[in-house]
Design a protein that fits this description.
The chain is of the alpha+beta class. The protein contains 4 helices and 14 strands.
């Protein structure tokens, strides 16, 4: 009898963790250098937690009518203006600081909220390096891949509605990565 209840508790715990913090396999290189192709990340289920999306968050989302799931970084919040000129990200008419990293073609961008992350950018004259100015509508977000020259993001897909955000990707320092070997 104890084995039965132990099995039920473990099964329910596993099911709840898998639902609340789904495991996501990354397919593609649009988030290089931060997330590698074929790596596994964990997300916080947005349909359960209804989290506030912050600038710098990495999210997974879908596009209406498509089966693919996208993973991108939030750079523009509702009401923000976004533009890229000569490879420089301009947020609300201010250039986001871009420091050279020791790695070739890597730079570190830092938002005014203190969030820093690396971007991969091989040049500043490609088709994605000069855009029009976008005004992010209410209830939507502007997302970019960290691999700026090789990412299908808001420059192609347009703005992402909040309702389409499936998960907010958890940082690797989150506890779920430490205990994931127990469940996954």
């Amino acid at each position: 009898m104890n084995f039965f209840w132990t099995f039920i508790v473990v099964f329910l715990g596993y099911s709840i963790i898998c639902f609340l913090f789904p495991k996501i396999l990354i397919e593609g290189e649009s988030m290089l250098p931060n997330i590698q192709n074929e790596s596994i990340v964990f997300g916080k289920n947005n349909y359960v937690f209804y989290s506030k999306v912050k600038r710098g968050d990495i999210i997974s989302f879908n596009i209406d009518g498509e089966e693919d799931r996208y993973i991108k970084r939030v750079v523009g919040l509702p009401g923000n203006t976004i533009q890229i000129t000569d490879g420089k990200l301009i947020l609300n008419k201010k250039v986001i600081e871009k420091k050279i990293s020791p790695e070739m073609n890597e730079f570190t961008e830092t938002f005014t909220n203190g969030v820093s992350y690396k971007v991969l950018d091989t040049g500043d004259s490609g088709v994605y390096d000069n855009t029009v100015e976008y005004l992010v509508p209410e209830g939507h977000y502007f997302v970019l891949g960290d691999n700026r020259d090789d990412s299908n993001d808001s420059r192609d897909l347009s703005f992402i509605p909040y309702k389409n955000i499936e998960e907010i990707i958890l940082p690797e320092t989150n506890f779920i990565y430490k205990v994931s070997f127990l469940f996954f």
